[in-house]
Specification:
By secondary structure, the chain is mainly β. It has helices at about 20-25, 175-180, and strands at about 15, 30-35, 40, 45-50, 60-65, 75, 80-85, 90, 105, 105-110, 115-125, 135-140, 150-155, 165-170, 185-190, 190-205. The chain has two domains: about 15-50, no CATH class; about 60-205, Sandwich (Jelly Rolls), CATH 2.60.120.1120. It has two helices and 16 strands.
Amino acid sequence: MATTTNTAYKVHIQEATQNEVDSVNIEQGAMLVTDEALFMGFNNEQVRVYPPQSDKMGLGWARYDDTQYTTASPYSFNTTAFVVPNNKGNVLDAHIHSDTDFYATNKLRAEFENDVYIITISFKAKISTANGYMELYLEGGNGTPYDRIRDIITFPKGNNVEHSYAKTFQYYADEDVVTNGLSIKILASHSGQLHDVIYFIQRTQNHKY
């Protein structure tokens, strides 16, 4: 059994109000505690140690909306697999907390290897045959079977009747995803159209921390 020892020094934690925390520079390694949180001085910053801050942990989210293909001008597809179109014409990423966009150059991106992400893919689509279907899936390289992350989309309302969809996938980033990204693809059984694509992506684990 491993032996554990105590640290050489006991850290004195000073009680303070939030206003006092906001008005002082905490010395390196020193700690202040309020009724709601514990703060420590680190590299000339006041870091909230507990509860942890999502921005300090690199956790965040971003939304990417396609503005090219709309109800008036949808994207037409056939039975050949294609990359879901999203020109990120409208982006919300003020709380992404990442130096890497989660979606760029038509691919999902990751900041660090072994990061974990959740994506919700929403869009509207119709297909020429009611008993037709589409397979929505991820595609990467390096031998990792990202194409197993997929879902079957059906069209129960009838031929050429528009449906609204929102599909959620969870995935991790291997080395190839960090370097080359992941594609979001669709393979359809029949021809059809889709539009109003939106990606909402959240990082749930930052492997750096």
